[in-house]
Amino acid sequence: MGISKKEAQALLNQNFYHNALNLTILDPNGNILATNYNSASGRLSTQSIQALIKHVNQSTSKWVETSDLDGNTTCINTLFQEELLIGYLLIFGPTEQVKGANQLILTIVNMYLNSNYKFDSNMPLTDRERSDIFVRELLLTSKNPRPSLKEEAEHFNLNIENPIYVAVIYASQPIKKKHPLYNLRNRINGRSLLLKDNVLVLVFSSNTALEYINSWKDDTMHIGVSTKRRDFSAAYHEAVETILLLEWLDPEQCTNNQIHDFNEFEALLPLIDAQIDVNNLVETLAQLDRNYEHHELIHTFWYLLKNDGHIKPTADDLHIHRNTLTFRIESLSKLLNMDLQAFDQRVLVYIALLKYFTYGLTSALEMADKLLEADAHNV
């Protein structure tokens, strides 16, 4: 049990964090095992580190954070292997980025520390158990897979030296273990992992597999497929983001006539990946909607979005003058303190309106990693 300096440095080389964030991995005594600070001058003092460790050890939570007057936050997280405390993870950077990325980074680090990369066990594994471990480890791998993972891929007749696809299947009903897609390996060169009873992940390398998946999906399923790539973790996130964006942003196209690929929604991903508090915007819209005049402004903007931002068709639909329409949009911009002429902010309000009217919106990355985290606890 424990984490070596080599393992700690390998963790920081995974490129799963924002460049603006500074990460430090400590042993249980507070000694630095690895850090990505460029200079010693920016690092926390030993006294500050010990104070943070004392704080988190006394907390009922497994992490605590402190903020300074410069808009930065330091978050300290406890690291465990099974039930044993093996160290701490420090994340420092702009408050918004730390709050947005902390849970994702901690999830990846803990899964890295608790995963079975050597695929050894005191108890013999069934082929399904071995396959599940392999797929889960593959989805955690960004680049340069470990030799043991390559060996395991060879066992399953997958060449992970070349790019692969990752597909995520969301079903409205539990996916039975007798389903052909769950038993993908029996028919084509691919592997599957059931993250939840209605969420199935597939990894495969051929276009023939896409045709096979399409032929066996049923009316309960929606499918998102990544681009073909060697960054397996990114491919997994692409697949999750694709299916979630499909359901949130374009529910009318949520048909079962085709498999939806990542490229269809790639232009919208910065809005999802950006650490923007959509919930606050939804609450603001809900409050504004209680006032009749403000309700009219929201109603007008919704029609503008449905008309792809075109002024004249929207004014015609609402039977108002174009100048009146422009005035209403400017008024809503002031109320929201946003520039609704800007594409990214306009679409952000669209997402918030969708959530307010219909859907619950969760970060695609957050949902993806929570699924993997839950699965890791069951292994």
Properties at a glance:
379 residues, alpha+beta, Beta-Lactamase, Alpha-Beta Plaits, 5-stranded antiparallel beta sheet, 5-stranded mixed beta sheet, 14 helices, 10 strands, 46% helix, 16% strand, PucR C-terminal helix-turn-helix domain-containing protein, CdaR-like_regulators, PucR_C-HTH_dom
Short description:
By secondary structure, the chain is α+β, with helices and mostly antiparallel strands. Helix content is about 45%, strand content about 15%.
Task: Outline the structure in words.
This is PucR C-terminal helix-turn-helix domain-containing protein. This protein is an alpha+beta fold and 379 residues long. It folds into three domains: 5-114, Dynein light chain 2a, cytoplasmic (Beta-Lactamase); 127-272, Alpha-Beta Plaits, CATH 3.30.70; 274-357. The chain contains 14 helices and ten strands. The strands form two sheets. It has a five-stranded antiparallel beta sheet, sandwiched between helices. The longest helix has 20 residues, at 95-114. Residues 116-123, 250-258, 271-276 and 359-364 have low confidence and may be disordered.
